[in-house]
Amino acid sequence: MGNLRSVIAERAPFRFAIDTRRLAPGPHTIMAAATDDVGNTSAPASATILVADAANKTRADTADTLPPRVYINLPTDGATVDRLGVRATVADNAALARVDWLVDGEAAYDAAITGTRAVSDFTWLADGVATGPHTISVVVFDAEGNETTRSISVIKK
Fold it and tell me: Which residues contact 140 (CB under 8 A, 6 or more apart)?
């Protein structure tokens, strides 16, 4: 683990700023738990952030040959689900173009995206889907056609 820091906040909204210049490029997990006045502590919740790699920026006159990066934030690999909100953070050194979501290899959702960093969400309505394991994949494309795929497994209850 990196540098840990406790933050004590007594009133909502609860906020925390992170200086990402001190973090290595790539995904980082933030965890939080709440403790009340008598010492009861909640189960920790987590979120994943993506720190871009500034060194991978290319000059405008150089062809983009680097694939985009994708991290599936929600759900966690192996989660048991019924109805599922899925979230991924995508990034590219030059320009993003499209994100495709697949469930068990079949197209489920797609969206055009722009910029060098984005969050993509979709809701998988698992009604009528067989119980048991399923694979959710996200494929991200950049403007030059480079692509990256990430997958997780979930169990439909």
Answer: 68, 69, 70, 88, 90, 92, 96, 98, 99, 100, 113, 120, 147, 148
